[in-house]
Amino acid sequence: xxxxxxxxxxxxxxxxxxxxxxxxxxxxxxxxxxxxxxxxxxxxxxxxxxxxxxxxxxxxxxxxxxxxxxxxxxxxxxxxxxxxxxxxxxxxxxx
Length: 95
Hints:
Blueprint: E1 2-3, E2 9-10, E3 26-32, E4 38-45, E5 50-59, H1 64-94
């Protein structure tokens, strides 16, 4: 999922366990909560694992506005870390 300039979340739907999510993508999953809302979790897919980013146990109504800040921050952090790693690799090659 990526944030687009229009401020919405771009989402791709994939069946659980049948598709390998590329590294750097955020995986959202949700299920019905006891109070009629939704229990939502967000994971960051890394090269070898997934990391739990956040859990919202009882979201009601339109919950994308609650999830969007976390998704945006993590997407930008991942891009910054990827850039830093690339620069460090280039510097190591020059030495």
